[in-house]
Amino acid sequence: MKKVLLSTVAAATLIAAPAVAQEAGDYMFGFGVGYVDPTDDNLDLGGGTFLQVDSGVALTFTAEYYYTDNIAIELLLATPFNHDISVDGAGKVGETDHLPPTLSVNYHFNDFGAFRPFVGVGINYTNFFQEKSDLGVLELDDSWGLAFTVGAEYDISDNGALRFDVRYIDIDTDATLDGADLGTVEIDPLVFSAAYVWKF
Prior knowledge:
Helix content is 7%, strand content 65%.
């Protein structure tokens, strides 16, 4: 009986946790960290040799406007991500920075109390800059692609929540070395993010 009572109290506490309870017209701002994990074998150089783009970490910022109680428009920004570039058997041959602003439409499920899962779809623009290579002049074209998001927020105060999400972003960039075409580098990363968000 005591265990049942404790379980009931715990469940009631969880249900009664503070809820941000967004409504149409609300703004949510977030600050956190993102980890970009590119897919393997990003560019086939022939002969079973592949160019590889390493992972990167950066600070992230989000601004989200609730068009309805469930549907929100979100802009993701970040400080520059830095990625090492390597070739099988040769090790690191270069590096690049990139900025990945992403505009998405998210649908939030608000029927679970303080726990609010969401899904989203959007468009990503990736700007590559400060490309460097010991092999010559490396250039990477900017990229446009779709982005898909799955995540959740958990309210920890009347105006604040913890947010975790995973994005798949279609990032493909045409690469040249000393003006010669190398091909299309298919980065296509998963982006893992954790942030604190608050309502205004």
